[in-house]
Amino acid sequence: MANMRTLSTQVRLRRLIRSYGEAADRLMSEPQTRQMAASVVARLLELTGEVREAWRRESLAGRPPKVLERYVREALRTMELAIAGAQQAGADLELLRLDFEMAALPLEVFMRGLDSEPRAARQAWLAHNGLSDGAPVLAHLQRPSQQEKARLIEVANTDVIDLGSALGTTAMYLNTTERPATYRDAWVPQMRVLSSPRIGGLSWGNTCLPGDGACH
Fold this sequence. Notes:
Elements: H1 7-29, H2 37-62, H3 66-85, H4 93-115, H5 118-129, H6 146-155, H7 167-174, H8 182-194
């Protein structure tokens, strides 16, 4: 794939990312600004439209492969949905911000790659779309708090793999006297399922869960 010019799209995308970050910080730190969410959302959607229009013009000149055009289209759509969700009552702004950044930040790398090094663009596309028959995985570069871990467990559709916590730390969380014990309370239902006799191949014997009373 030959290099193509994406400077106009990059400039507008960076402005959108910066504006979204400032708006999200304000909405989360100042509850009274939630009443202004509709106007903030309208402005951010307007900036997203400018990104889309700049990409339309530059892609006509550069003619990227269809699969890459689809990637940009889907990333922009994800960003728009995350932005629009901020004006809904009871919206989880932190989760919406995560959705936005997971679409916008790889897209920025992708645009820079198209402009300078096609390999970087392919890497960004692969990071977003994954390998064939793959499954998306959400990872944290730093150890999240108990509260954040509990949120991940509660919203997971399939599996939660906690590779970052040492066994001793996990045991401490499960036996904690701290209240509320958010991490323990999130895991206890999962542990009950695993210890059920109906789960083949797993035998915990007389193991009991912390806080259940006397353990044998």
